[in-house]
Amino acid sequence: MNLLGEHVRHQVFGEGRIVSISKNYVTVRFDIGDKVFVFPDAFEKFLVLSNKELSSRMEAYLKRREQQRRRQQEAECKAVARPEPKPEMKEETAPRKQKKSRLRLNIAFKCNYCDGGKSEDSIGFRGVCSDAMIRYNIETERHVWCSSEECPCRNYYDGKISRAQLDAYFNREGDGSFICYESVMLRDWRAAAGIVTHGENKGRPMRLMQVQPNSLAVLTTREPGTPEAKRFIFAVFLVDDTYEGDNRDEGYVSAESEYRLELTPSEAKQMKFWNYYYNPNAPELIRFGSGLHRYLSDLQAAQILKDIAAVKEGTKDEALAKKFFQHFCRINRVDRDSLPMPDGALVKARNREQA
Fold it and tell me: What's the mean pLDDT when you consider all of the chain?
């Protein structure tokens, strides 16, 4: 298939056009700029060809590739079950080096507070921030994207567009409109690694090196004017798609399965992030720093899900919360009946005060 110049649709970036394609990558030009995707994997979930004939051919190709992959996996399983006898190794032959497998971890994201769509039942993260929140994010927090001249919220703050234009820009579909990742985080259930904000690598996209399908993604934030110790968990989801990222595009994780849970504002404030996480190099330091994500062990992730299940008791999400916790422990071989108590930086600080 000749895809160069073809138009595509992306679930976040809207309409775009393919400007470059190689064996492993495809570059799409959107209104917000060029984005690089893994080829042909991106056409399984994220990119849809506008040309119906090409879209059908791509779907058929991906289906054949998946069938071939399954046949190969079945053949490999049979080979493992009945291994062939190994030939004797000659003395002068050096043993092959084992390829080091990458450790799978879970991930917690540091999210800018977004009150778009906030209600008694929702923390927000479903729309454009209020005027007060836009002003706070720019003037006080000085968040990089919020303060950027490319950000629509900054254009509104500077008086270049009206509030009606800002809201209309967010509500437009399929034309590449983009406010920020936070404004659609709980609509699309997707979180990105962001870019480096300090040092010699400033401006470079960050990568997610150790996140894989079945990793837990934990979304955290804190309310305006509150200290880092009050950072709370407002949503969790089980990763079923992930992009590691490269030198041009940041990594991201997303979820489409049933294992997605949002906490109400009152529930979220019971889930202090620092009850579970601590910096191995400075266990008592409660500081997230400039990085936008932190990695969590399976035990820490299971502790979070267990406490969310307790918080959700008596609510419409009770059954799902318990099922989520049990499913995570089962697929990651965590003994939920002997799970240790959380031992995060806040817990360590309390224990030190009581000693």
Answer: 83
The dihedrals phi and psi of 301, each to the nearest 5 degrees, come to -65, -45
pLDDT 10s digits, 258-267: 999 999 999 9
Q: At what angle do helices 298-311 and 318-331 cross, to 10 degrees?
A: 160
E-only strand ranges, the chain: 7-10, 14-21, 25-30, 33-38, 47-49, 106-110, 190-192, 216-221, 232-238, 241-243, 252-254, 260-262, 293-296
Are the beta carbons of 32 and 19 closer than 8 angstroms?
no
Spatial separation of the C-alpha atoms in residues 297 and 210, rounded to whole Å: 11
Residue 89 host element (H or E):
none
pLDDT value at position 30?
86
Mapped onto helix, strand or coil, the DSSP state of residue 235 is: strand
Q: Computed from CA positions of residues 14, 20, 24, 25, in that sequence, does the dihedral angle turn out positive or negative?
A: negative
Structure-token match 């030009």, residue found:
29
Q: How far is 91 from 141, CA to CA, in rounded Å?
A: 64
Helices (H), 131-264: 131-139, 144-147, 152-157, 163-171, 185-188
The pLDDT tens digits of the residues spanning 209-243 come to 667 788 899 999 999 999 999 999 999 999 887 76
Output the CATH code of domain 1-69: 2.30.30
Domain ranges of the chain: 1-69, 106-125+185-354, 128-178
Structure confidence at residue 32 (pLDDT):
80
Q: Is 216 helix (H, G, I), strand (E, B) or coil?
A: strand
Alpha-carbon distances, residue 25 vs 35, 39, 71, 212 (angstroms): 10, 5, 25, 20
H helix runs in 110-231, sequence order: 131-139, 144-147, 152-157, 163-171, 185-188
Q: What is the pTM of this model?
A: 0.68
Helix (H) or strand (E) run with residue 301 in it: helix 298-311
Whether the predicted pLDDT of 91 surpasses 80? no
As a whole number of angstroms, the distance between CA 12 and CA 126 comes to 13
Of 29-43, 206-220, 299-313, the range with the highest mean pLDDT is 299-313
CA 86 from chain center: how many Å? 43
